[in-house]
Specification:
Length: 248
């Protein structure tokens, strides 16, 4: 190295504070990615696909919803489709008979917490309490604890996987396809987004609204009226997670 460059090398050093700030930003980015991205596995394994490539696993969050779920159940029955409902405990207590009907029709039920909070910065005890209260509501309605758990918004804390497994759960279920259907909207955009669904996908949909019991989700029913016969016509089986042997 030329002498002048050697003499000026100290001027080129990055301040220690900048390095620390960069490391903190990188760590924060990694944490956010691990907590929020469905495919991230750093905080523990998640389930995102059905094992059989000829299966589509439809999942519905935030119910039960007395305004929408009964219509959805009739539509699913018409097409002999079985799905998985990730229910919110407070809605199960308000509509226990509907939760009972979901199970009686052969659908799987999963834990989606009691009040639908983000779990990222919740303590271990707060997370366990949310899951306990939801489990209690489900057991009261259908007589058994759920096997599956989905965190609200898909947001996970570093210790969520350990909590779920310690409780005997089968796993944390995320998704590989979604319809962005959680706000009232025409059915057409939902239909268009569901064109991306492929065999083996776990699909995120919503029959409820975590903020209120009777949320507007008729666009979801209308979209499925379009897609259920087409998926079945293409040879896909529509199975619940209990039936479909999901894989990580």
């Amino acid at each position: 190295m030329p002498t002048e460059a050697c003499e000026n090398s100290e001027d080129m050093q990055v301040p220690t504070g900048w390095l620390a700030a960069g490391a903190a930003c990188a760590a924060g980015g990694t944490f956010a990615w691990s907590a929020m991205v469905p495919s991230a596995q750093l905080f523990g394994p998640t389930i995102r696909h059905a094992r059989d490539a000829k299966t589509i696993a439809l999942t519905f969050d935030d119910g039960p919803n007395p305004s929408v779920t009964p219509k959805l159940l009739r539509l699913l029955e018409k097409h002999d489709a079985r799905v998985t409902f990730f229910v919110v405990g407070k809605h199960v207590r308000a509509a226990a008979a509907l939760a009972t009907e979901i199970a009686a029709r052969g659908h799987a039920i999963g834990n989606h917490t009691d009040t639908h909070p983000s779990l990222i910065f919740r303590s271990r005890q707060e997370i366990a309490d949310q899951m306990d209260r939801c489990d209690e509501a489900i057991v009261s309605a259908i007589g058994r604890k759920p096997r599956w758990m989905r965190p609200p918004y898909g947001f996970r804390s570093p210790w969520l996987d350990r909590i779920v497994r310690k409780r005997g759960g089968a796993g944390i279920v995320m998704w590989s396809a979604m319809a962005r259907d959680w706000k009232p909207q025409p059915a057409e955009p939902v239909i268009r987004r569901l064109r991306r669904v492929r065999g083996g996908d776990i699909v995120l949909l919503h029959d409820g609204d975590h903020r209120l019991l009777d949320g507007d989700r008729m666009h979801v029913v209308a979209a499925l009226e379009y897609w259920l016969p087409r998926w079945q016509g293409a040879g896909f089986k529509l199975l619940s997670l209990d039936q479909g042997s999901p894989e990580r």
